[in-house]
Amino acid sequence: MRAVHIVDSGAPEEVLEIRELPRPDPGPGQVTVAVRACALQHADVFARVGHPEIEESFPKRPGTEIAGVVDEVGDGVEGWSPGDRVNVYHHVSCGECEFCERGEQTMCPHDRKLGSDFPGGLAEYVEVPAANLEAVPDHVEMTTAAAWPSSFTTAWRMLVSGGGLEPSETALILGASGGVGHAALQLADRIGAEVYATTSADWKAERAAAWAEAVIDYTETPFDEAVTELTDGRGVDLVADHVGEETWQRSIDSLATGGRMVICGATSGADPDIDIRSVYQRHRRILGTPMGSRQDFRDVGRLIARGEVSPVVDRVLPLDRVAEGHRAIENREVFGKVVVTPQE
Ligand SMILES: NC(=O)c1ccc[n+]([C@@H]2O[C@H](COP(=O)([O-])OP(=O)(O)OC[C@H]3O[C@@H](n4cnc5c(N)ncnc54)[C@H](OP(=O)(O)O)[C@@H]3O)[C@@H](O)[C@H]2O)c1
Ligand SMILES: [Zn+2]
């Protein structure tokens, strides 16, 4: 089978290689999934160019947002058969620690991920634990099914199970064109909150406007000033920030008194220069929400199956054009998700 490998740091055309490997045989409790679609995310770019949160060891076999069809089941697997259409939750935790016992798999000290600690889904086949599968209904396209597992689950944690956004509240979603950003935007709108968004280009603002009261182009106006004006000086109840260093102070300054900033990433850097008085003097809170639990994954999957929110597939590429996807994400030319179809 063919599988993408990141063999070094560097330009995508130079360091993304397709290698021929044996198709994996499922071990006990495992399932081999024929990958019909696997989405890229910013972590794929970090895995290639380097990032403080990602270890520098090559080659890597990336791919965390996986949709496909069960190909073969290992010993002891019940409830799944070849041909079943599935999504994969990509965190593999110990199942025994205090965090796993309370259903917080991503807090597990032994938590490991498909696509970084285990071979990922940018391959024709991938081996995954049967416990990590959820069914994909027939009416959901495989490319759509691949466009949400991590981004929407993270956004759900940011807004709902972590951030507790209520219908009567206001929310500001940064980087609304991104994988997490466009998910957070749609979920905030679905909850019924009044939603503001930031983005960096007119064409992206036009798309984001479908789910937002107002879209702020932060390349033209400092977004905290725009929020202050839009909310008559009050600020918003929740800011979803996955950008990091470049935006932290403005995000904090966009909050109402008592508001909360939910964070899941540091795309622009992890070392913000902030005035801590702007947090404590206004009773504001900063909450880490790096990814959702297995239950968050199930919950948001149901909304997608019912069409209540819709992951946006910006483009679909075959495996041998994965470098184009990396380039597009890096150049910020995407609204929503880039999806790769390994079997085409
Ligand atoms: N994708 C996931 O499932 C996931 C899960 C957990 C954590 N995270 C973290 O969340 C962050 C975003 O991930 P993603 O996959 O959603 O990325 P993405 O699809 O590449 O979206 C990032 C968006 O952030 C905005 N942005 C603002 N400042 C930026 C800068 N300096 N560099 C790059 N983009 C900038 C851009 O949107 P505008 O042009 O609209 O401003 C861009 O489209 C990453 O730090 C990632 O590690 C992601
Ligand atoms: Zn555990």
Number of domains: 2
Bound molecules: NADP nicotinamide-adenine-dinucleotide phosphate, zinc ion
Structural class: alpha/beta
- Give the topology string: H per helix, E per strand: EHEEHEEEHEEEHHEHEHEHEHEHEHEHE
Q: What is the number of helices?
A: 12
Q: Please give the CATH class of the largest domain.
A: Alpha Beta
Low-confidence stretches: none
Annotated CATH architecture of the largest domain: Alpha-Beta Complex
Q: What percentage of residues falls in helices of 4 or more residues?
A: 25-40%
* Total DSSP E strands: 17
So what's the overall shape?
A: globular
Would you spell out the secondary-structure blueprint of this structure?
Layout: E1 2-6, H1 12-15, E2 16-20, E3 30-39, H2 42-49, E4 65-73, E5 85-88, E6 91-92, H3 98-101, E7 112-113, E8 125-129, E9 133-135, H4 142-146, H5 151-161, E10 170-173, H6 179-191, E11 194-199, H7 202-208, E12 214-217, H8 223-230, E13 236-241, H9 248-253, E14 255-263, H10 277-280, E15 285-288, H11 294-305, E16 313-318, H12 322-330, E17 337-341
The protein binds NADP nicotinamide-adenine-dinucleotide phosphate and zinc ion (ZN).
What do you see in this structure?
It is a single chain. By secondary structure, the chain is of the alpha/beta class. The chain folds into two domains: 2-149 and 292-341, Quinone Oxidoreductase, Chain A, domain 1, CATH 3.90.180; 153-288, Rossmann fold (3-Layer(aba) Sandwich). It is 26% helix and 26% strand. The chain is built from twelve helices and 17 strands. The chain has helices at 12-15, 42-49, 98-101, 142-146, 151-161, 179-191, 202-208, 223-230, 248-253, 277-280, 294-305, 322-330, and strands spanning 2-6, 16-20, 30-39, 65-73, 85-88, 91-92, 112-113, 125-129, 133-135, 170-173, 194-199, 214-217, 236-241, 255-263, 285-288, 313-318, 337-341. The strands form four sheets. Strands 3, 4, 5, 8, 9, 16 and 17 form a seven-stranded mixed beta sheet that branches. Strands 12-11-10-13-14-15 form a six-stranded parallel beta sheet, sandwiched between helices. It has a two-stranded antiparallel sheet with strand order 1-2. Helix 12 (322-330) links the parallel strand 16 (313-318) and strand 17. The chain is globular, with a radius of gyration of 20 Å. The two termini are 12 Å apart.
